[in-house]
Amino acid sequence: MAEFFQQSFHAHFNFWIYVILMMIGLWALIAKNNLIKKLIGMSIFQTAIILFYVSLGVKAGATIPILDPYGNKEQAAAYAEESDPAKGKNEKKGTEEKGDSSYVGKKSPNPDIMANPLPHVLMLTAIVVGVATLGVALSIAQMIFKEFGSLEEDEILEIVKGGNVDD
Amino acid sequence: MIFAFDIVILVFLVIAAIIALSVKDLLSASMIFGIYGFLICLLWAEMGAVDVAFTEAAVGAGISAVLMIATVFNTKRKSSD
Fold first, then answer.
1. pLDDT at A113
2. Most buried residue, A44, A68, A131, B70, by most Cβ within 10 Å?
3. Domain boundary, last residue among A76, A93, A114
């Protein structure tokens, strides 16, 4: 039981909350009567999906995915440590690259010390699309209010069924 | 990622979501939804996604809260549930 807690709850807490938020949003979309409340639920659903994707890019002890060759001492130290074996090989071969502690001008940064930026970039698009969806949905809600004089789903359905829409 | 900070923000996130969906006043619901947006922006920054964090702060928390408040003022403020 303690092992289960350690492995599935402590290590994957983000994913539990993602499922909970997604179900809250789905419940609001289905069960709430007010149209604005339904739209808040839709937004919560979207943020839950974005939370899932950003959680995939998280690494333990990783920093933000920005390469800072001149300012960040920790990144520089981690990179120097990473490139040490290569430097040893170069020294054996006797090339000109020995004794160089800064990593400016070297091949590539070490990806292990940064969070994975690919899900972040994908989710930027999802956030913008979500706001556009919310804007269109809110404008449709305003038009429904102008037509029926109400934002409640049951009242609108009653007016539609009764057939006394004045236009 | 700082685990204690992570847990605190996630718990507040769930609380904010439930309160935003359960208040009867739609203006309060919109404001609490804005708080939800800023909390999730804090969560992105804490998880190392700074680009997502400032997009969410500007677009998610700012614009969507403003759009929602504008809709509430153009329609009705009371909600049945």
1. 79
2. A44
3. A114
> Measured between alpha carbons, how far is B47 from A165 in angstroms, rounded to an integer?
51
Asked whether residue A102 carries a pLDDT value surpassing 60, the answer given is no
Residue B14, chain A, CB below 8 Å: the answer is: yes
Count how many domains chain A has. Answer: 2
Q: For chain A, what is the largest distance between any 2 Cα atoms, rounded to a whole number of angstroms? A: 91
Q: Could you tell me the residue range of the domain that residue A166 belongs to?
A: 1-58+116-167
Q: Any idea where the domains of chain B sit in the sequence? A: 24-76
Average pLDDT, rounded, for chain A = 80
Beta bridge partners of B78: B25
Q: Does B31 touch chain A (CB under 8 A)?
A: no
CA atoms of A32 and A38, how far apart (whole Å): 6
pTM over 0.90? The answer is no
Are A35 and A105 in contact by the 8 Å Cβ rule? The answer is no
Cross-chain CB nearest to B21 (options A37, A114, A128): A37
Please write the tens of the pLDDT for every residue from A37-69.
999 999 999 999 999 999 998 888 788 888 766
Residue A89, both tokens: 């090989």
Q: Which two structure tokens, joined as six digits, stand for B45? A: 């920054």
A34:B1 CB<8 A? no
| Token code pair at residue A86 | 């290569």
Partnered with residue A34 across adjacent β-strands are A152
**ipTM of this complex prediction, to 2 decimal places:** 0.94
* pLDDT for position A81: 65
DSSP B17-35: HHHHHH-SBHHHHHHHHHH
The C-alpha atoms of residue A92 and residue A124 are separated, in whole angstroms, by 47
